[in-house]
Amino acid sequence: MPPTTLLLSLLLSSTIAAAAPPPLRPEFYSETCPEAESIVRDVLRRAMARETRSAASVMRLQFHDCLVNGCDGSLLLDDTATMVGEKSALSNVDSLRSYEVIDEAKEAVERACPGVVSCADVVIMAARDAVLLSGGPNWEVKLGRKDSLSASQEASNDIMPSPRANATYLTNLFSKFNLTIKDLVALSGSHSIGKARCFSIVFRLYNQSGSGRPDPTIEPRYREKLNKLCPLGGDEEVTGDLDATPERFDNQYYKDLVNGRGFLNSDQTLFTSPETREYVMMFSKNQTKFFRAFVEGMVKLGDLQSGLPGEIRRNCRVVNSRWPEVLLETGR
Ligand code: HEM
Ligand SMILES: *[C@@H]1O[C@H](CO)[C@@H](O)[C@H](O)[C@H]1NC(C)=O
Ligand SMILES: *[C@@H]1O[C@H](CO)[C@@H](O)[C@H](O)[C@H]1NC(C)=O
Ligand SMILES: *[C@@H]1O[C@H](CO)[C@@H](O)[C@H](O)[C@H]1NC(C)=O
Ligand SMILES: *[C@@H]1O[C@H](CO)[C@@H](O)[C@H](O)[C@H]1NC(C)=O
């Protein structure tokens, strides 16, 4: 290659590199905060010792953060006088929990390496640890995300799926994020741990699709159990288990779906619908296949990026420009 052409191609490639966000990579903090991952894992271990369910609640945060403008910690911003954030969005309000576990992990990481590790990355590490510490697979996470400068309740309302959603709707939604049918079914296996409210299922127990009748795909004895848990007109904040082993990350969720014992409509529809059923069957028979597909799905979910400018937040709930105390303390 003549020298001028070489120079030109170097210039061009550096221009392109500056325009696209820098690629995420596993060793991102290996020089600047090598202890970050072990610190976050210790915090998760302590949180789960206090409350086992916090693993499920933390893992769910990755889904709700990453689907809305990419994995940018936008989910974690508290509302301000001028910004209504994602925490108060339809799928999140009175539902998402364990934000304080992320705060604790971020504070611990800040003590070790101030101003280095983003809240968005803490969520990704914590979600992985939650799965691993619940008996699920381990995987290497890519890091180097920036935290958003704003959040949008509206964006979350537009994107996050309802528990009423059917397989066709979910397949289309996931395809917009380059997530395949296999990814959809595998990622839904996150409902192998955790709980949901009666609020999320009363419609299917008493008035599925406005029919005035229950969802006929619910196995009768399971329906009786759900009717007792969530009587018509009862307290919709009461919670039930998402599968038969809600503290263990395993493939029980898929076995339950095959038996008509899915908790949410969005779960059971994956077995009812022909386009997703084959993966439910596959994962119900082979946990190794589920674990591999789940890891692949979580990595793809973690790759979603907004491309918008960002920062390393000092406190996950507030953008740095609104955090003058910290700015004064650190003299930055
Ligand atoms: C496929 C579309 C999905 C729908 C429609 C959906 C919907 C829901 C709903 C309605 C709840 C219960 C909320 C409540 O009653 O307060 C829930 C809980 C949960 N979701 Fe999903 N979800 C989906 C996918 C995912 C994905 C991809 C993940 C993670 C990768 C995830 C992780 C969880 C976890 C762990 C819980 C239990 C949380 C806890 O116990 O605090 N979900 N989901
Ligand atoms: C699935 O849901 C969509 C939108 O909510 C609806 O238009 C469609 O008719 C449903 N499909 C089936 C097979 O029920
Ligand atoms: C999906 O993949 C296409 C082609 O690789 C890419 O142009 C697009 O930005 C991707 N979409 C998302 C949401 O990542
Ligand atoms: C069932 O839902 C339909 C449509 O959403 C509504 O018109 C009807 O009143 C509901 N029936 C009952 C018993 O709640
Ligand atoms: C489960 O799937 C894995 C990976 O594809 C395979 O190696 C293994 O033999 C399968 N196990 C059974 C019992 O079929």
UniProtKB/TrEMBL annotation:
Site (Transition state stabilizer): R60
UniProt key word Transcription regulation: no
Any one Gene Ontology cellular component term annotated for this protein: extracellular region
Any one GO BP annotation for this protein: response to oxidative stress
Pfam families (alphabetical): peroxidase
Residues binding substrate: P161
Catalytic activity as recorded in UniProt: 2 a phenolic donor + H2O2 = 2 a phenolic radical donor + 2 H2O
Descriptive protein name: Peroxidase
Gene (UniProt): LOC105176439
